Amino acid sequence: MRGVFSESMIDQGLPKAAQVYQLLRAAIVGLELSPGDVLSEKEISDELGVSRTPVREAVLRLVNEQMLIVRPNAGTYVSTIRLRDVLEGQLVRETIELRCVRLAARFFKPRFEDEFETLFLRKTKALERKECGEFYALDEAFHRLICDCAGYSHLWHVMHSAMGQLDRVRRLAFPIQQHFDEVIAEHREVYAAIQDRDERRAESLMSQHMDSIFESLEKVCEQRGLLIEGLTSDEIQSVRQLSSRIR
Asked: 68: which strand partners?
């Protein structure tokens, strides 16, 4: 685990617990901390130059999100990815984000245009540099901006806390699928519908965009299936059938 974190990652002027949480979550999603890895609160505290309290708060938050497991007298571990948890995250995402994209179209204001265009520019630059981690972070920023545009910024945090296992699959799929151009094109289509205040089209396009998770899950199952708890060869072939349970 050593070398994952450093004191330079912490802004001393901001709340420590929230920063430690984001850093830990990003490390788990990005597989810098892999399933089964043991976490030491003391090591994390030392590397980040913070006390144990914000680290413990961050750990407890990630335990609640099923990304960490605390075993009494045994330690804290990074959880494996469970298929049911991935589908549960997708259910939360569909329920909230499809509503948000309609509201974003209904209440769209020109002041958001610069933010969207800046995101698209940064994505293109990240693609040119083949910076997969940066591209994924900008992908998340796009979906967060839609919540802002809808007027319900807090809903991003609701989704984010429920999507830990789903995000791990999405992040795993990025370098496998290499669909960066397609993602940018799909995001631009959604944004164009929002700009046009076309609620139905924005919702339809977002639904199609989110459905790509099932293709991503299939690819991850094929190439990195050992990371997904309890996965069998039969389940790899029936991921789309399993997804029907949340439709």
From this structure: 78
Amino acid identity, position 119: L
pTM of this structure: 0.85
At 216-226, the pLDDT tens digits run 777 777 776 66
Q: What is the rounded CA–CA span in Å between residue 141 and residue 191?
A: 13
Q: Is the dihedral angle over the CA atoms 170, 176, 177, 181 positive or is it negative?
A: positive
Which residues fall within 8 angstroms of residue 85, CB to CB, at 6 or more apart? Answer: 66, 164, 165, 166
Nearest alpha carbon to residue 93 among 178, 216, 189: 216
Q: How many angstroms separate the Cα of 145 from the Cα of each of 33, 117, 137?
A: 28, 11, 12
The token pair that represents 212 in the structure block: 């790509």
Q: How many beta carbons lie within 10 A of that of residue 148, not counting itself?
A: 15
Per the structure block, which two tokens stand in for 141? 């920023």
* SS3 per residue for 104-159: HHHCCCHHHHHHHHHHHHHHHHHHHCCCHHHHHHHHHHHHHHHHHHHCCCHHHHHH
pLDDT at 142: 97
Longest dimension (CA), the chain: 57
Instruction: Find out whether 199 and 102 touch, Cβ atoms under 8 Å.
Output: yes
Q: What is the rounded distance in angstroms from the CA atom of residue 142 to the CA atom of residue 127?
A: 15
Tens-digit pLDDT profile for residues 179-229: 889 999 999 999 999 999 999 999 999 999 998 887 877 777 777 666 676
Rounded Cα distance, 136 and 141, in Å: 9
